[in-house]
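Suppose you are handed a protein chain with no further information: no name, no annotation, nothing but its sequence. What can you learn? This example shows the usual starting point.
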Amino acid sequence: MRKITSCFAISLSIFAMACSLTACSNKTIDPPVAQPRIEGNQIIFSENSKQQEALTTEITHLQTEENIKIYGRAILDEHHTAQVYSPFNGRIERLLVSLGEKVQKGQALARISSPELGLIKAELSKTQADFSQAKQNAQRTSLLFEQGLIAKKDLEIAQTELSKARAEYQRNQAKAQAYAASGQVDQTGILFAPIYGEVVDMNIHVGTEIRAENNQGNQWAQSTQSNGSALNTALFTIGNTKNLIALLEVPEIQAHRIKPGQKIRIWGNQQENNPINSTVNFIQEIVDPQTRTVKIRADIQNIQRQLRAEQFINATVQVPSQPGLLVNASSVLLSPEGAIAYVKVKQNTFERRSITIQEAGIQTTRILSGVAPGQEIVKDGALHLEQLFKEVQKK
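A reasonable first move is to predict its three-dimensional structure. Written in structure tokens, the prediction is:
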């Protein structure tokens, strides 16, 4: 019985081995992947090479113009903007406008209670009365002099007093006008809008204490004292948001290429497909020592309200192109012997070339020599070709 069992086990083993050999003989073996060959500085792929499918190319060409991309922010146009401060100390009694409201020039913005203003009004009323009295006295003295009842000296004294009273009254009248302190003698003053526009910012509430000595005007900025109270902050900012200014920064190395009158496209975040077209109207003659940039300005006709004041913006300035071929920065490789690019010289064949390059902006390189206009250069996959080239060289 044991002998029969042993023979049966051997038979099963032989059968399993036979099946295994049969399965192996029926399995399809993939042909080996054809590797590219190197001839001089050329990499030659076989027909229908899978590796070649990963490569993308671009055709180089000369350009008469190119765009420099720069960044900055949109600010209110100072010709259409006014910051309103209080010329006297006091407390806000009532706000007469709201944030975002359109106001006319001379429209009342806020009512202020101020003991200082009360003194100005009282002084104006006093000097007005003194002037009126001096005027009547001068007229009476002149009449008496004509009748021969008083000496000429008395007439001259009356006229001198009249001149003094008139000057003092005019001085207080001008001061009251500057402080908007007209009307009856009380402690109430009004802040008026100096221009037409929209109330784009407010930094006060009813009951806010205001100090005239804080009106030192650091535009668009707010400082604070050690106790936390605000300094240099306008009570109202009135502006026209349909007219903004693009304040942009150009790298020092590119600044010489930008001139007034050049075309510029401006857009906010995720608005590149709907830019605002304008022209450069100012280039600063000073380089910022911290950022090594030069500021340029352009008007923004923000009719559709695409942008907001103080928003970060992008822009491209159209400038004459420099000699050379502009290509994607990924087309150029840096090696120990210098800059390298791969040019497609014919079907399935790519040539490794040494080139001379120059920086041309973000993600862009200018090829000065080594590639001719109209030639096809590898844009994506140049690093893969370089690795293949180096591997073959090692062998």
